[in-house]
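Data card: per-record layout.
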Amino acid sequence: MRVEDKMKVIREFTSRPPPVQTIDLAKALGINVYYVEWPDDVSGRIQRDEKNGGDSGYAILVNKNHHPNRRRFTIAHEIAHYVLHQDLIGDGIYDDALYRSGLPQKVEFEANKLAADILMPLDKIGKALDKSPSSVEELAKQFEVSKSAMSIRLGVPYEP
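The structure for this 160-residue chain is written out next.
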């Protein structure tokens, strides 16, 4: 699947009302998602897996002990690696709790940016804000992301 085709699938999912269904999105891209037991400092991994991968031949492994919002971001982040950096995946890309894989910082920045675009489409945030003034907490709940992720997306400070 070409990058353009992958982005078309992502646009289809982000055009729907929030929250974006990340597992369904992964499946639509031909990626199987599995929850695994890992130490807290490991968030996820995307890997080539001919046996357990989806139609694409890839699988995403996610730390089952992390909060559901964090797992959603991890899945979106690994999808972003598949879309943008498929040629770098090789035997797999592990991402730690800060979504650092040992890949160049630019690559991780790109994956984080696309993950944010997937989970928090700016047009959907704008529509939510047009309907009624919302707090960071309310928007985070609606989009099923952390308050920190939403505050970063909005470019506003957030103090828990």
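Known properties of this structure: The mean pLDDT is 90. The chain has one domain: 3-154.

See the next section for split statistics.
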